[in-house]
Amino acid sequence: MKFKIRWNLRNKIILPIAALIILGMVLSTLVTNSYVSEALIAVSENRFAIQINSNADRISDWLDARAVEIGSWSGNKTLITSTQDSFMGKAARKTASELLAALLDGYKDYEAIILLDKTGTMIASGAAAGEKTESFGGSADFKKALNGEQGVSRVYRSGKSGKTVFNVFSPVYPENAAHEVKNVQGVLLCTLTLDTIAQKFVNTIKYGKTGYGFLVGSDGATLVHPDPNLILSLNVHDLPFGEDLMASQSKSFYYNFKGVDKFAAMSIIPRSGWRLALTSNVEEFMASAYKIRNLLGIIGFFVVAFVSVGAWFLIGGMVIKPVHQVVGLAKKLQMGDLSAQLETGNDELGQMGEALNAVVLGMRERAQAAKGIAAGDLCQDIVVASEKDVLGKALFDMVESLNSVVGELTISGQQVDEGARQISDSSQSLAQGATEQASSLEEISASMSEISTQTKTNADNAVQANQLAEEARKAGDKGASRMGEMMDAMSAINESSQQIAKIIKTIDDIAFQTNLLALNAAVEAARAGVHGKGFAVVAQEVRSLAARSAKAAQETADLIEGSSHKVSDGNDIAEKTAEALTGINDTITKVADLVGEIAAASNEQAQGISQINIGLSQIDDATQQNTANAEETSAAAQALSAQSTQVQAQLARFKIKGDGACKAAYSGERAKTVRPAAGNRPRIQDGWGQDDSGSRTVEPNQLIALDDGEFGKY
């Protein structure tokens, strides 16, 4: 089941206030917690730094004390003499070993004390006789000692005791000789354990339950740690925070080790380059800040709860109760109850009650005015509170408009009554005239029917004449076509005669040439004498045939020439006949066109007369309809006159301003009426789209006269 907040006025006021208070407390708690956390972190870091720096200084002092101690030992006469490569030096080495053994027994921080010559070979030792010792000639720290400086080796695990140890190499100078490199004649080697440093200066560092100290060498190797498994096996260079731990100066930093967030402070130990660090879990480190944050949260919660409860009751009594009264008043007004009243006071809620009471009073007055208007009393004097009083302006304009409308309706009713009587008289006259007009239209319609019949007969005859003219035109076209064909045939005969004449001419030319040849043959035969007589006879016969051919050709040419002239004359006659036929055809065509136009005009006349008949029929129907309408209009005008009388009787019960019937709607002194300015008054539109903001006066000349003389205008 979901929890739903009821958004009443109390919740709308209190919940935002509570939200702001909660937000303020949360922000205050967060800021305070931030500052407190930073301060506690700074204090804790400072405590870390003080503790770690103090122990680092103690370790440094311890190393300095050992350095001074070893330096004083290297100045011992017996040890100095033992470093000499002479009889006295060799004789003193046994005594030097006993001295070193005594020092080893008296100082528990040392695991071994050895005297070396310049080659790094042991010449005396505090250890038991026969113990093997390695040569240190190649050691960098040994060479550093040969150069006149104390050298400190890296920390390593002793093969003898298993402890973590380191070596200190101190140069040995001759007695009363300057401490210069050239005067170094041996080196005193001291092996020290880290037990004292671990027990006194590292393991004693604690912070809460999870804080502990550890020591790291200059090479990053872990020298001292609560977990012995990490000593010399863990190099911090391999860890993500190794760079912070091996920084060149002391610092504090946060890191993660084995999944645990930690805080650490580191300090560098001079001379050795070791790093002493103190670390603790961040959760324990920040425990104080978390406690303060939680405490502030609890305090803030109780403060918010107390303030919210107090605001709930205070606002409920001072604000919500008057608002409920206002809501009750609004509900009564919604139901139309204007009898409600609110308590007043000097505060804003009291002023609101006073203003609402004034509103209710104004509504009562306007309700009383509305009752008067409903009863027909339009003499109400409406009070407009201000220019922004929309309801007052609307009532004022309504009263003014109703006065104007009722007054105009009275005048209009009288005019409607007069107009109805005029319409009734005019409708009766219109009905009588329409009846006479219908009788005349029937006579005209009968005459037009006879004319239509005759026109139809003329149109049919014209159509038949048009058909006959069309057939004559087609026959003329056919005769002209045949004449043209005959002229073409005669032209062909003429051309054939001309060709035959050319052939006869050719035959004549051949006969002439043949005659010439026969003549030449006769001449040649005469020359031949007796031998040419037979050829002369043949030539004579050929000549006779040529003469006969020439004569026949001439006769044929004459006959053909005569035929050609006759053909030419026949061609001229045929052309004239064709021209005559063409003229006849054109005349027939024009006659056909005229007859067609006559037929078309007759058809159009017949159609026009038919349309006239239809129009006359429609006019007859309209006239009869007008007659019926006029009778109906007369009856309606009489009914309208009766209704107008009833309307005037209804309007007579209204009292309007200006007619002397108005009485004072209220007695006593009234507030000053604020009437809307003319420019701001709403313009009232009547049903015909005309401005009806004021009274309208109808002039007599604006009335529509519906008598017999003026009826035709409308």
From TrEMBL:
Biased composition regions of type Polar residues, renumbered to the chain: 423-439
Positions of the UniProt region annotated as Disordered: 420-439, 673-699
GO MF terms held by the record: transmembrane signaling receptor activity
Stretches that traverse the bilayer: 295-315
Gene3D superfamilies: HAMP domain in histidine kinase, Methyl-accepting chemotaxis protein, PAS domain
Ranges where the Methyl-accepting transducer domain occurs: 412-641
Name of the featured protein: Methyl-accepting chemotaxis sensory transducer with Cache sensor
Keywords recorded for this protein, A-Z: Cell membrane, Chemotaxis, Membrane, Transducer, Transmembrane, Transmembrane helix
Localisation: Cell membrane
UniProt KW Transcription keyword: no
SUPFAM superfamilies: Methyl-accepting chemotaxis protein (MCP) signaling domain
Membrane topology, record value: Multi-pass membrane protein
